[in-house]
Amino acid sequence: CLTRWTSRSSQLVQKIVGQAAILYTFLIVSFAWIFFRAQSLADAAYIVRNLKVGVGPQLAALGAFLQGKLGITSTLNALWPGVAQLDFIIALISIGLFILFEGHLQFWQNIFNGNRTFRWVVYFLAIILILYFGVFDNSQFIYFQF
């Protein structure tokens, strides 16, 4: 019984370490993007110095929500000002689905390849999401700036 418990705990520790490594890589790459996108080193330094600005009200709103003092709408507006709630909810659901699908990739590949109707529903859903979230104005493509 002890051997089985240590084996399971070892697997859990390995999963946690793996997820922490992914998070660490994401944070390092995101931080590096500050220097990649900044117009100058002084601009990058300004951005790094001001990363924590505005975190206080967001944490206060999150704390009030967790205590039941603030509704979900007010919390979302405080955490992500300027982001439409529908966009946020769709993005959150999409991220959750990607995480779910990633863990069972072979299963979903079998369904996707075996069921033509399901495959076309996914295609049309992808097109609808691209049309909904896409930016179709005359702005310049981001990499043309370099």
Q: Would you write up a description of this structure?
A:
The chain is mostly helical. 0% of the residues are buried. It starts with a helix and ends in a 13-residue tail after the last helix. Helix 3 (55-66) runs antiparallel to helix 4. 77% of the residues lie in helices and 0% in strands.
Number of helical stretches of at least 4 residues: 7
Structural class: mainly alpha
Strands, total number? 0
* Basic shape: extended
Q: Into which percent range does the helicity of residues fall?
A: over 70%
- pLDDT average, as an integer? 81
What's the quaternary structure here? Answer: single chain
> What is the N-to-C succession of helices and strands?
HHHHHHH
Question: For the CA atoms, what is the radius of gyration?
Answer: 21 Å
Describe the biggest sheet? none
* Poorly predicted segments: none
Question: Could you provide a short overview of the structure?
Answer:
With 146 residues, the chain is an all-alpha fold. The protein has helices at residues 2-37, 41-49, 55-66, 72-79, 85-103, 105-114, 116-133.
